[in-house]
Amino acid sequence: MPKFTTPTGSTQRYISALDRAQGDSVPGTKKVYADRAAFLQGLADERACIAMGLPVWYDGIDLQVLAEPAAVKRLWTLSTTAGSAAANAAASHGRTAVIAFKKFTLASDDNRVHASTGAPASGMGDNGDLCLDETAGVVYLKTGGAWGQVASLGGGAATPIVDDLTTGGSTAALSAEQGKTLKTLADGKADAFGAPMVVGFVGDSLTSFTEVNTPPLVARDIRGYGSHLIAVAGGAILPGKVLGMSGDITANIVAAMDAWLPTLTTERTIVLYTGTNDLVAGALTAQQLFDQIMSGVGKIKATGRAAIVGLLMPNTSAVTAPKIALRLAVNKLLRDARDQGLVTLVEWDDVPQQASGTIPVSILYDGVHPAPNGAERMGLRLYDVMRPALVPVSPASWAPVGAASPRIVNGVMAGTAGSVAGGASGVVADGWLASNGGTGSTAVCSKVASTDSDPTDWQQVVCTAGSATQYFEFQRQIAGGAGSFAVCAIIEVEVPDDASVLSFHLRTKSWAGTQPGRNHLQENDATKLYTAGTRRRFLRIPAMTVDATEAANMTVYISIEVAAGKTAALRVRRVGSVEV
């Protein structure tokens, strides 16, 4: 029971500060019970406190019963809606069991969770009990005296965990907290890579640029803020489904989410950015627009997913005083909601605006929609918000978008056994060819260590043009047969000055006489795309369907054009394909 004290001159009992600081009263901590009897006594004690109007535990606090399997966690459910304090006490319970992130609700306090190797024996447990088959990863429920399977968690027997980093092992399971903090083992005997986070996107035309499954607009991908989020995340983020309703208002977009959200599968986080067209129309109050945005947040959270909302950016179609005031007021309401813990924000409101107050075309190419540099800034801000939740991803299983595909062999650019041609020199990744062209130009290839969390080295080339434009490319023939797919890549371009790089692009060509797809990720006005410095890009060609002859004669190219007399560097780390 919690300790109570009575201040001098008062008959009201209260919980002292000492008790409020104890672990079972702080959100995010866990209450551990040595056996089942202690667990049931703890529930009874807490309900007694609730009946007196003095709840100590928080809703959702973790409860661990050591007599139950280590993979099982209990959650305390605190009722505050049953009516009286006595009714709240009766309704509150610790019957929710979480097993491998799936929730199961037991029928009563007396029900428990058992463990077995293989299907549970018929004589084990009582009706309403659960049993975890720790070998097959299957959860059973006992009803009518018989066990029936209710969930398959995947996996199988526990993987041995290296104890001394050299020999030996244990089949004891890691706790969830250990799994989060274990990043690597000292000598690499086990890897701690995780699965990438799949992110969905909802919004208007600014969001639709991230829709990588909609060919074949030139430069479409690199104007999507989600595309740049993917590029800087080092494989830790993959793009999911996109609901991009060009030209539409928030009310319609939020309404369309009702049909869209049930179609999602692996997407666990949704980025919601809407309100631009509402600002232009100017028909809503700040409170009305805020309420509509938060309605979308509520729908996302109701599916068990996380929601991230972008603050509204200024644009040249909403520059009257009332529309500026509307944008500022909506952003203030969103910030207030964030401060109350109601929403997670990405602060995009100052992305397009320079110190002079102008909005340059290099950021928003038409004053409303992001140019690649603007999308890059948005992607970096979004990545900063999401970074704490990300884990490194194995380079052996990662493709820039969607599932890994065998069409691009050695897409992680490993090794140094590749070839050079046309005056290129240095070392090139296994199976790849580096080809250079341009009077008096040089192209020096090398492997460069990653500077972020990604463990894969970059394949680099430093291009120095002579008296004419230099054209350089990495290339290799694809593998695989007929079908529909798209090729994508993560690259970095290092630009000493605005005029050094004329273009860079990802393309495919079938030497069987057709050219299934080409996507030049550059526009005629290079000032809209490049500023001095290093820029990381996500490139993706439109989806294509090829027959067996085309597939057997197809080559993928990553190319760069450098202006005469200039120097620039191109780095490639990821080339993959996705089936569409």
UniProtKB/TrEMBL annotation:
Pfam families: Lipase_GDSL_2, Phage_fiber_rpt. InterPro entries: Ester_Hydrolysis_Enzymes, Phage_fiber_rpt, SGNH_hydro, SGNH_hydro_sf. Residues 201-376 form the SGNH hydrolase-type esterase domain. One of its GO terms (molecular function) is phosphatidylcholine lysophospholipase activity. SUPFAM superfamilies: SGNH hydrolase. It comes from the Bacteria. PANTHER family: SGNH HYDROLASE-TYPE ESTERASE DOMAIN-CONTAINING PROTEIN (PTHR30383:SF5), THIOESTERASE 1/PROTEASE 1/LYSOPHOSPHOLIPASE L1 (PTHR30383). This is Lysophospholipase L1-like esterase. It comes from Pseudorhodoferax soli.
